[in-house]
Design goal:
This protein is an all-alpha fold. 79% of the residues lie in helices and 0% in strands.
């Protein structure tokens, strides 16, 4: 199926076509993720944690992750096309691609460590603490469940 819009900008495989496709997929994914997140939030507020609701929540989380991967691959396709276009203008395209990859790693990796990785580590710690609090709340009164992580967090008495 051909789209007249893509024919106007040089086709789907042109650089402009790749960027338009990535932007459109990003926008559509943001809308879908927003809707799925609202559904998941409403399930969490009214949930009695039945098997069906837990499965639905896991499905929504998987769908959101899948949309994120789709957006990532669509932008990777754009960047790959851009690198190929730049490299094709040089006398040594393979060396140019290698140098551009090294520059991207040197620029992106520190930013990823400072912003994304640290936020993910904090999110994971908060999520694990939330799970521990929920599991403690579901125990009958008088019972305390402690795991190895909790034992390290308890200060020693003989100090």
């Amino acid at each position: 199926v051909r789209c007249p819009f893509f024919d106007l900008i040089g086709g789907l495989h042109s650089m402009a076509g790749k960027v338009v496709l990535a932007v459109a997929l990003s926008a559509l994914s943001v809308l879908c993720i927003g809707c799925l997140d609202k559904v998941q939030d409403s399930l969490a507020k009214t949930s009695d944690h039945s098997i069906g609701e837990v499965a639905t929540s896991k499905f929504i989380t998987s769908a959101i992750t899948s949309l994120g991967i789709l957006v990532g691959f669509s932008w990777e396709h754009c960047f790959d096309g851009g690198v190929s276009a730049i490299a094709s203008l040089t006398p040594a395209p393979h060396l140019t691609k290698l140098l551009l990859a090294v520059v991207v790693v040197l620029v992106i990796t520190p930013a990823w460590r400072m912003y994304i990785l640290t936020k993910e580590m904090v999110y994971k710690a908060v999520h694990e603490e939330d799970l521990r609090a929920r599991s403690r709340a579901s125990l009958p009164s008088g019972h305390i469940r402690m795991n190895e992580t909790d034992m390290h967090a308890v200060p020693s008495m003989g100090g």
